[in-house]
Amino acid sequence: ELKVEQNPLFLSMQEGKNYTIYCNYSTTSDRLYWYRQDPGKSLESLFVLLSNGAVKQEGRLMASLDTKARLSTLHITAAVHDLSATYFCVKGGGADGLTFGKGTHLIIQP
Amino acid sequence: DSGVTQTPKHLITATGQRVTLRCSPRSGDLSVYWYQQSLDQGLQFLIQYYNGEERAKGNILERFSAQQFPDLHSELNLSSLELGDSALYFCASSVGRTDKNIQYFGAGTRLSVL
Predict the structure, then answer these.
(1) Band of the pLDDT at A1, cuts 50, 70, 90?
(2) Which of A100, B17, B61, B92 is spaced 20 to 30 Å from A64 by Cα?
C-alpha cells in the first residue's frame, strides 16, 4: 500500500525564521506535488516535481525531490504570516489517483 | 478562482437519505476527480472520469456512485447516508487522462449527515 508521510504534522514558527517540511513516500514515483489549503478553503497547487533532483521556487517557498531517497522537501525562507496554511505532499503516478499525505498545519506567528 | 464549480456549497441531510453533488470542470478539461476530506481519513481519492468514461477508482464505497455527462459535468451520488459520510467533498479537473497534469480543485461541498 502506498504511503505518503509528512513530518511534522503541526508546526508553529515565528515570522522571519526558516523551516523545512519533509515528505517521504513508500513507492517509486515520477511525480510529486505540493498543495496548499487555507482553513475551510479549497486546495491550490504550489509545485509539480517531475524528476529526480527537481527544484522549484516560488517566493519564499522552495520544493525539491529526491526520487532515490523517496523524499521531497518544502523549505520556507523568512516566513511571513500569509504563509500560514496546511501544506499537503501528494504523490501521483499510481493507478489509484493522487495519494495525499496527512498535511502539515503551519502557523506563523508575528 | 480555479474555474471548477461545485454545487451546493453546503448540504445537511439525515441518515439513510440520498444526495447528489455536482461539479462543472474548467473549460477544456476532460478529467474530473472526486475526493473526500474528513478529519479521521484525511484527503482520499474516490473516483476519476475522463471524457465520460470511468478512468480510475479509489476508496469509493459501493453506496457511492458517479458519472460524467456529455457536457463533461459530473455528479457524485451518495446513498444510504451514514453519520460517517459527513465530510468535505472536492471535485477537481485536469486537461489530461492521467494525473501528470495539475488538478484544479473546486471549493468543495460540505456534507453534514445528522
Answers:
(1) confident
(2) B92
